[in-house]
Amino acid sequence: MPRTTKKxxxxxxxxxxxxxxxxxxxxxxxxxPKNEIAILPIESLNFVADMKIGTLTTNARIIRDSIKALxxxxxxxxxxxxxxxxxxRKAKLNTLAKQMNDARIAYEKEWMQPFNGFKDLVSESxxxxxxxxxxxxxxVKEEERREKEAKRAEIADIWKxxxxxLVPLERIFNDKWLNKTYKTKQIHDxxxxxxxxxxxxxxxxxxxxxxxxxxxxxxxxxxxxxxTLRRGAELRENRKRLQEEEERKxxxxxxxxxxxxxxxxxxxxxxxxxxIVEQRKEILGENAPTYNVDFSTHExxxxxxxKPKQPIEKLFDFYVTMPIATLAxxxxxxxxxxxxxxxxxxMKDFRSAMESNGFVYEKSSYKGYLLLxxxxxxxK
Length: 380
Known about the structure:
The chain is an alpha+beta fold and about 375 residues long. The chain has four domains: about 1-50, no CATH class; about 60-140; about 150-235, no CATH class; about 315-375. About 60% of the residues lie in helices and about 10% in strands. It contains nine helices and six strands; from the N terminus they run αααααααβββαβαββ. It has helices at about 15-25, 60-70, 85-160, 170, 185-205, 210-220, 225-285, 325-330, 345-355; strands at about 290-295, 300-305, 315-320, 340-345, 360-365, 370-375. β1 and β2 (about 300-305) form a beta hairpin.
């Protein structure tokens, strides 16, 4: 096991006691300083360190427990209404906290001082080692690069043996083939499996018919069969939608032309009918019947001549009291006049009829209308 000497220097494990003593207590000469340390070969260096954990005597735990008991039983109600007492207690607690924290910082600096010196020495040594290993790493990596290039050339020769030109080697190359532990037989097996998979995938793409060529190009670019199949389904669906859209447009165009032809026939129909009517009038005279033709149903109906319309005469509202109402009135019985509605001619005929039958009337108004108060001639 490594151990430390009285002067805590680096000591190789395989040295004799005499060599160790020579290192610990070198012979003093005029040319050699008293504290000089012997330089040892790298191969014989073995890192040694010996640390004795120090002790620190303090009453921090007692203070911690006392403060904890204080805080557990602390009640702010004790200080409400007594700000001076609260300020004094606050000052004492702050002073205690500052004393403890200042002491911790001072002791921590003193405690860490020897370790920080040790840390700096180790860090410097590690950095010196790294400056060497970085250069050595360049040599190692350059050799690894040459080995991988040689194996890459070997893999290229293996690829040529299979005479497969649908994809380049770079498309299916696997970097694990360059590892020293990956054998040539494993590379042969991997390449044969990849070629079989590509060939099988291309056969699966044949089902897409007219899209086969496009999908094969896509597959040979990606070597992703599932993505290629999804693209094939998408192309098929797109073509279906395009076909349906073309058929819909063709149907709309056919309907438009049919409508245009019907409109043209309807536009020409009146002229044709007018000619037919004129011809019939020439043959049958003015009394020749007229017909309507429905060109969509080919239905023909005769047009009946319209009868002359009678003029609409204005109607007038007026009230009439009957002779019996006059007799009732003489007896003190009230009655309502009768509302009548008639044309002017009807009113004239009504007046003549009353006079012919021995009735007379007197004109007045009732509710804003004409009132004829009728009674038997000579009864009043």
